[in-house]
Amino acid sequence: MIRLVTFLGGFYFFLEFLLPTEFFGFSFAPYHEYITNGIITVGVAAIGLGLISILRVHGTRILKVSPGWFPSTLLLLSMFAMIFATGNEAILDRNDAKLYERAALLREFATLVAKDGGTAELSAEARTTIALEAVETFIQELPTSAEPEADQSAFQELVVAKTELQRRIDSGSRETLPGVNEGLAQVATALRAYKTTVREASSNRKVYNLLYQGLWTALAAAMFSLLGFYIAAAAYRAFRVRSVESALMMGAAVIVMLGQIPFGVWLYEGLPALRSWFLSVPSSAAFRAIRLGAGVAALLMAIRMWLCLDRKGGKA
Amino acid sequence: MNGLEHATPGALLLLAILLSALFWPKLWRYHRDTVVLRRIPGIDAIEAAVARAAELGRPASFTTSLTALGPVLYGSLGVLRFVAQKCAQYRNRLLLPQSAPDVMAVCDQAVADSYRSVGRLNAVRPADTVFLTDTQFAFAAGYMGLLQRENVGAAFLFGDFAAESLILAEAGQAVDAMQVAATTSPEQVAFFVCATDATLIGEELFAASGYLGRDEEDMKALFVQDRAKLALLVLVIVGVLLETGASIFGYESGLIQRGLQWMPSFGGAIVAS
Amino acid sequence: MIRSLLRFIDARRLIFILVLVTLSLPLLLRWSVPPVRMTAAELLFNEIEKIPTDVPGKIVYLALDYGPGTKAESGSQAKALIEHLMRRRIKFLVTAQVLDAAPIINSIPDEVAAGLMELYPNEKWEYGIDWVNMGYTAGAGLNIQNVAKAASIPNFFKRDARGNSTAEIPLFNGVTSIESVSALIQITAYVGTLESYLQFFANEKYRPIFLHGCTSIATPQSFIYLDSGQIKGLLEGIAGAAWYGKLLSDKYPDRPVDDSVVINTTLGVAHLLVILLIVAGNFVGIFGTRASKRRTDV
Fold it and tell me: Cβ–Cβ of C220/B271 closer than 8 Å?
C-alpha cells in the first residue's frame, strides 16, 4: 500500500513535469493547487511529532527529577509562553481583521445598492434603508471609549470619522450613498490606526516583543556571531602551508579576504577584481562540478524513492 | 531562458539513461563485479569513529541538521543504518538530534530497523532521538549543549547544511569527538574540511551507503549515475566546443548556430536535476 | 591569580579574546571606511533603476528568507533594497518561505518607511499602497510553484499577513499572474531557498528578473547563478550591502550614513585579524616543527 501511494504520488509529479501545460485539452493547473496544498498540510501537521518528542523527553526528565530537570522546565515554560503569546497575537489579528473586513463588505454593499435600481419585491429605497441600518449597526459596535494605554489622538480621529459617518447616514438617501461609502473608508483607516496603537500598547504585545526581540533575536544573533570566533580559530589551525596545494589554497583565501574589505585596496587596487575572478572562474567551476555530481546522484535517489527500488528505503 | 521549461530534450535524455540503466542494466554491460568503488578515506573513517566512541565508552551522534525529506536525506540514511548497526553491535548509545519532525520519524524507523537487523531491537532508546527545534541557530545551540552534556565520542554530520555547519563541527571539536561530515552544499565543505576529521564531498554522500553496504541496488545506482554524469560531461564539452567555435567562426555559422539553439534545451536538464 | 588566568588562556581562548576586541572596538567607536566597490551589487542597483514605475499593475516580489540570526548581513541588505524600492516608488509585496522571517518581514518595511517619512515630511509611504506583507507561507518549493502558476496572485493569497482581503488592497489593482511581477528579489541565509525560486518561479511564457542577496558564506555558491545569468545582480554579505548603501547615497545625497558601512569596516578589521592569525599559525607551525626536530635530534 505504501509503495502504491508513493508510486502514484511520484507519478503525478513526473507527468506534471513531463507533459506540456495543455495536453490534448487536459491541464493539471486546476488540480495542482489542491494536491500541493494537501501535501503542504500533511508536512505542517508533522510539527505535532516534534512537540510530542519535546514533551516526552523533557516531561519525563521533569517528572523523574532526573539530572537536567531545571533547564528542561525552563525549556517547556519558554515553549508554552511563546505558543501562548504568538497564538494570542494571531487571535487578536484575526479579530481586528474581522472588523476591517466588515467595513469593506459594507462599502461593497453600499456601492452595489447605489448602482442597483431595485426590484418589484424590494425597492431601491428599501435597499438603501437596509444598507444604512447595517452601517449604523457597525458604528454602534465600534469602540466608544479609548483604551487607557492607546494613543488618545488616534482615538479622537476615530471619533471624528465616526461622527462624520453618522452625519452622512442621518442625511442618507440613495444619492448620498457614495458619501457614506467614503465615510466608511475614513472610519476603516482611523480604526486601523487606533487598533494598531491599542495592540502596540497591549500586554500581550509586550510579552511577545520581550520573547521575540529581547530573547530570540539576541540569542539567534549571538549563535550566528559565534561563527566569527570559530572561523578565526579554524583559519589559525587549517591554513598551514604544508604543500604546494595548501599554499595555493591559503593564497587564494587571503586574496579573496583582502579583496572584499575596505583596506585591501590600500595594498593593491586590483584586489577586488582579482577576488571576483577567483569567485567567478575557479571557484564557480569547482562548485558547478560538485553540484552537478550531487544533482545527478540526488535525481537517481529520487527515482529510487519513487519506484521503491531501495528495499530499506521503502521500509523507512 | 524565458519561462519555465518542462521536460526538455536534455532532461528526457538524462531520465532515459537513468531509467534504462536501472531497469535494463545489461544494456549498459553492468555486472556487479565490474563496478569499482574507489576507496574514500572519509568512508573508512565512519567505522573507525563508531569503534573509537565505543572504546571510550562515549555515545555517538548522528545529525542531518536542517535537511528536509528528500533525496539527500535518503542518501544519508544508508550511513545512519550502518552507524546504528555498529552501535547496536558495540552496545553503544546513538543520539539523534533532529530539526524536522517528519525527518525524525524516518530516522527513528531506520534506527529501529538497524537494531532489529542485528537482533537488538530492545536496545533502542526512544529518548535518544531528540527533537531540538526547526530553527537554524536554536538547533545549533541545542546541538552544542547535547554534545557537551553527553560527552559524545563520535559525531556524524550528514546532509544539507547552511551557516550552522561550522558551529556544529566546532561543538564536536570542543568535546574531542571524532567527526565525519558529508554534505552536498559545496560552500560548507570548506568548514567541514577545517573542523572535522573526515569529509565526504558532494556525491560521495550518496556513494557512502553503497560502499558500506555493498547492496545490489546501491551498486547499480552508482553504476547508473556514472553513466549519466558521463552523458552530462559530453554535453558540457559539446557546449564548450560550440561556444569556442562561435567565438572563432562567428555565431552565424550554420552548424554552430543550430547547435547553440539546441543547447539551452539540453541545459534545462541541469536545472531540472 | 595571574598564573591561573594565564593557564586558562590557551591559544583557542586567546584567539576568541582577540576576535572580541577586534569586533567591539570599531563598533563602539563607530569607525567607518568607504566600502570596496562590488560590481555584482552595482548590477543589482542598475536593474532596480531600470524597473519602470509608470506601468500600472506591476509589482516587485520581495522574498526575505532569513531569520534574526543573520540580521546584520541580510537585514542590512533588505533595508537598503527596500529603501531603493520605496524611493523609486516601486510597489512591492514581501513574503517569506522561512518561519523565522515572519516578524522581520512585518517590521522592516515599516521601519524604512518611517525613516523616509522623517526625512521627507511632505511625502507619504503607506502600507497597502506602496507595499504589502503576505507573511510566511509554508510549503517552500511547492508553494512557489503554486504562486507562479496562479492566474491571479491576489486571489491566490486571498489575505495579507494582517488579515486584510487582497481584493481590498489598492496595491493589487491591475495585478494578475506572475506576469505582473517585474522582478523577484530574494534575500536569504538558508541553503536551497534561492534554488526553489530558480526552479519554480516562472510559468511557461514568462520569468521575472531574479535579483539576490546572500550571506558572505554563500557568496561562492551564488556566483554560479550570477555567472550563468540566472540572477542579474547580487549583494554579497555586508560588503554588498555597504556598497549598495554608497550607491544610494550617491544618488540621494541627503541620505544619512547607514550602519552597514560601520559593520563592514568592523568586519574588515576582523578579516585582517584572521590573516594575521593565518600568518601566526604558519609561523608557529614552521618554527614549532623545527624546534621539536632539534629537540629530537639532541
Answer: no
Euclidean distance between CA atoms B91 and B120, whole angstroms = 9
Pick from A18, A230, A292: CB nearest B166: A230
The secondary structure of residue B36, as a DSSP letter, is P
Contact at 8 Å (CB) between A2 and A316? no
Q: How are strands ordered across the β-sheet holding B198-201?
A: B129-131, B94-98, B60-63, B154-159, B178-183, B198-201
B60 bridge partner residues: B94, B154
More confident residue, B22 or C56: C56
pLDDT over 70 percentage in chain C? 93
Work out the average pLDDT over A133-151: 80
**pLDDT < 50 positions in chain B:** 1, 268-273
Three-class SS of residue C233?
A: strand
3-state secondary structure string, B55-111?
HHCCCEEEECCCCCCCHHHHHHHHHHHHHHHHHHHCCCCEEEEECCHHHHHHHHHHH
Beta partners for C135?
Answer: C95
- Among all chains, which residue has been given the C-alpha cell 522582478? C183
Q: Which of C149, C70, C82 is closest to C113 using CA atoms?
A: C82
| Cα C295 to Cα C86, C284, C289, C290, C298, distances in angstroms | 68, 16, 10, 9, 5
In chain C, beta strands by DSSP E? 59-65, 92-96, 131-136, 181-188, 209-214, 233-236
User: How far is it, in rounded angstroms, from Cα B192 to Cα A102?
Assistant: 56
Interface of A with C in 248-277 (CB under 8 A): 250, 253-254, 257-265, 272, 276
Three-class DSSP labels, chain A: CHHHHHHHHHHHHHHHHHCCCCECCECCHHHHHHHHHHHHHHHHHCHHHHHHHHHHHHHHHHHCCCCCHHHHHHHHHHHHHHHHHHHHHHHHHHHHHHHHHHHHHHHHHHHHHHHCCECCCCEHHHHHHHHHHHHHHHHHHCCCCCCCCCCHHHHHHHHHHHHHHHHHHHCCCHHHHHHHHHHHHHHHHHHHHHHHHHHHHCHHHHHHHHHHHHHHHHHHHHHHHHHHHHHHHHHHHHCCCCCHHHHHHHHHHHHHHHHHCCCHHHHCCCHHHHHHHHHHHHHHHHHHHHHHHHHHHHHHHHHHHHCCCCHHHHHC
pLDDT for the residue numbered B273: 35
Cβ–Cβ contact C220 with A under 8 A? yes
Phi/psi for A123 (5° steps) reads: -75, 170
Q: CA B107 to CA B101: how far, in whole Å?
A: 10
Chains with ≥3 CB–CB distances under 8 Å to A: B, C
| Percent of chain A residues topping a pLDDT of 70 | 94
Measured between beta carbons, the chain C residues lying within 8 angstroms of B186 are 220-221
Q: What is the DSSP secondary-structure string of C64-98?
A: EE--GGGIIIIIHHHHHHHHHHHHTT--EEEEESS
Of the partner residues A223, A286, A305, the one whose CB lies closest to the CB of residue B140:
A223
Kindly give, in sequence order, each residue whose CB lies less than 8 Å from that of residue C270, ignoring residues fewer than 6 positions away: A228, A232, C19, C22, C23
Q: Which chains touch B (3 or more CB pairs under 8 A)?
A: A, C
| C-alpha–C-alpha distance, residues A216 and C71, integer Å | 12
Its pTM stands at 0.82
